[in-house]
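ZP: hey, is the iron/sulfur cluster complex queued? I don't see it on the tracker
AM: it wasn't, my bad. submitting now with these inputs:
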Amino acid sequence: MISVSSLTTYLYCQRKAYLNYVLKIYGPGRKEVVSGKIKHAVIEYVNDDEKEIVESIDSASLEDIEIAYRSKYYKALGSILLKYRPDLERLNLKEQAMAEVWPVLLKEAKLRAKNVSEFISRHNVFGFALWEKLTPKYVSEVPVASFALGLNGKIDKVEMHSETSVLPFEMKSGKAPKSGIWDNHRVQLAAYIMLLKEKYADVNEGYVDYIDANEKRKVVLNPFIEDEVKKLIVKVNELKNSTTPPEKDKNPAKCVKCELREQCDALK
Ligand code: SF4
């Protein structure tokens, strides 16, 4: 079984995929990677406590609910920043991290608080019943796998509407394209939708959330993208069984910021 991230790495640079998935060489992580990991880690951390937050809400006031989410996120961010301290110091990112990550978490807190507040206004339920009935619910870091496709992965966030209907989101730090979606992001989300389809009947689209740009871009599954993903799975499996490293990528701009440049140069 291969991972969805191996598909996106292959699309980005085949030689990098060879270093990662054949030689098992991974870089120390660039600034964007570490900052993305922190954002994900905080959301995952607070997700575990979301039931507790929702059950503690005793008013439909959007402001009060936002405060409940914000204070939970703030505490979570503090402990995650401590965990990532060595990486942050190595990348000289300590001062920047809070300023970069906090607005993203505020946005997430607003989204979830609005969802809960509107639900209470419609149904007037609180406590355990509120958590039980709340729709949609947001679940992060959702593991998915398919033996038929030979593919697995973890989806950043899934909006759960019912037992059959879900909407996946991939959260991306860094620059968004002027229009559309970066190719590797499009393929990644399409692969996740295909994996979700094995479990949920009603899923055919999802969103790439360019969190720094505050832009959500839609991906709709169609037979052409499905075919593209399936062909890519075959190519990555071939690469994994190969003993010859692929040529260097033709775009030198990728190599300038690549954390595996040294190891790549050392290959034949
Ligand atoms: S240095 Fe360039 S060719 Fe080598 S792995 Fe990195 S991006 Fe690919």
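AM: back. Strands lie at 2-3, 137-146, 151-160, 166-172, 205-210, 215-220.
ZP: great, adding it to the tracker
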